[in-house]
């Protein structure tokens, strides 16, 4: 395969930072996965990044990721062997050899997790994913938006339970059944989702997402080394927009049904003095308001960053007193069509509102 390049050891940190930003609160910094992949690199393993256009149309790609509540991953250490169990189960069931692996979502821990599979199984990592960010539910995928089925699904936990869901009535039923299994196994389970052909990846996936995460992380790292504003570097790298700053003053959070749900409030300072920013979350940040006025909503990305380091802050770690800068990045175009919004728009999260992109408005940026 000609369109491959090695992901360097130095790029691993940048990838982890970038996937944290694209995680929009879900999974946060994939610190434990980063330790795992660095260990594999020190043992001589390497991961090669493959351009999706260089996958043959009839070759098959694995899509892997953890399903569950982000908070649980801080209590139960991720095990590379667990995610490989789901991968191997799906490969046996399909009777086909996977030629590459890709992330179920480039955001947060699931953005780094497939590197472990790629290193252990000695196959390339695809520079693509089906979301371009993180979402809380399995059916929230560009493949589902395109009308492709969301079965079969392989699941594996740490107790040697391996489950194969061979068929479901709909993608939402796949999510419902998978979520129940996830809850029963402790709110975290490894998955290998429906195998996708090279043709399907070319036609429907979000391309360049791994490279995007690395680029974002490198921008943040460069800002740190130059002692400049890391949030500004994120905006410059992705043409995002500034939303708000500064201090987290309240968080209400609960883990239920395999999700972390709740709301956080940030009290403004400097240019935002006297204003209040509140944001809802379901694993990821979903809808945000400034002084009660609706400001930004899914599928646009709401990214809450540490004001000093640019590190992404997750829904499971956001807490009182943190000084933050909040920015928004535009959603991938595949997520903003009418068909897509039925799956990933605000109504899919239970809000009685139509999607209006923050990035399509005539918006005068205010910088703190």
Description:
With 368 residues, the protein is an alpha+beta fold. It has two domains: 4-207, CV3147-like domain (CV3147-like fold, 3-Layer(aba) Sandwich), CATH 3.40.1610; 229-349, Beta Barrel (CV3147-like), CATH 2.40.390. It has ten helices and 17 strands. A seven-stranded antiparallel β-sheet has the order 15-14-13-12-11-17-16. Strand 11 and strand 12 form a beta hairpin. Helix 3 crosses helix 4 (109-121). The relative contact order is 0.16.
**Strand order in the largest sheet:** 15-14-13-12-11-17-16
Shape: globular
Strand content: 25-35%
CATH topology of the largest domain: CV3147-like fold
CATH architecture of the largest domain: 3-Layer(aba) Sandwich
The helix count comes to: 10
First CA to last CA: what distance?
47 Å
Q: How many individual domains?
A: 2
Overall number of strands: 17
CATH 4th-level superfamily of the largest domain: CV3147-like domain
Order of helices and strands: EHHEEHEHEEHEEHEHEHHEEEEEEEH
Uncertain stretches of 5 or more adjacent residues: 362-368
The CATH class label of the largest domain is Alpha Beta
Mean pLDDT: 93
The biggest sheet, with number of strands, parallel, antiparallel or mixed sense and barrel status, is:
7 strands, antiparallel
Q: Into which percent range does the helicity of residues fall?
A: 25-40%
- Structural category is alpha+beta
């Amino acid at each position: 395969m000609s369109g491959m390049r090695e992901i360097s050891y130095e790029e691993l940190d940048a990838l982890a930072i970038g996937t944290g930003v694209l995680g929009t609160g879900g999974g946060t910094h994939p610190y434990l996965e980063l330790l795992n992949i660095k260990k594999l690199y020190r043992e001589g393993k390497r991961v090669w990044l493959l351009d999706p256009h260089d996958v043959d149309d009839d070759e098959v790609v694995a899509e892997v990721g953890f399903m569950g509540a982000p908070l649980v991953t801080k209590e139960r250490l991720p095990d590379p062997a667990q995610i490989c169990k789901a991968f191997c189960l799906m490969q046996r069931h399909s009777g086909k050899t996977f030629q590459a692996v890709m992330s179920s979502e480039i955001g947060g821990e699931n953005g780094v997790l497939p590197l472990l599979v790629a290193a252990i199984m000695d196959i390339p990592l695809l520079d693509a994913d089906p979301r371009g960010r993180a979402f809380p539910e399995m059916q929230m995928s560009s493949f589902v938006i395109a009308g492709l089925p969301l079965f079969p699904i392989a699941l594996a936990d740490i107790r040697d339970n391996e489950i194969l869901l061979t068929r479901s009535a709909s993608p939402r039923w796949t999510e419902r059944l998978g979520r129940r299994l996830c809850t029963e196994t402790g709110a975290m389970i490894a998955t290998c989702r429906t195998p996708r052909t090279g043709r399907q990846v070319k036609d429907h996936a979000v391309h360049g997402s791994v490279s995007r995460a690395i680029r974002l992380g490198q921008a943040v790292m460069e800002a740190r080394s130059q002692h400049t504003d890391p949030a500004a570097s994120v905006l410059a790298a992705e043409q995002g927009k500034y939303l708000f700053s500064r201090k987290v003053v309240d968080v209400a959070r609960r883990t239920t049904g395999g999700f972390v749900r709740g709301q956080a409030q940030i009290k403004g300072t400097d240019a935002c003095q006297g204003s209040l920013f509140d944001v809802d979350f379901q694993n990821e940040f979903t809808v945000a308001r400034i002084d009660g006025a609706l400001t930004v909503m899914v599928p646009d990305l709401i990214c809450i960053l540490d004001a000093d380091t640019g590190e992404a802050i997750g829904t499971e770690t956001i807490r009182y007193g943190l000084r933050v800068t909040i920015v928004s990045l535009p959603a991938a175009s595949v997520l903003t069509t009418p068909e897509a919004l039925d799956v990933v728009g605000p109504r899919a999260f239970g809000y009685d509102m139509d999607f209006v992109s923050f990035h399509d408005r005539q918006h005068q940026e205010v910088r703190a």
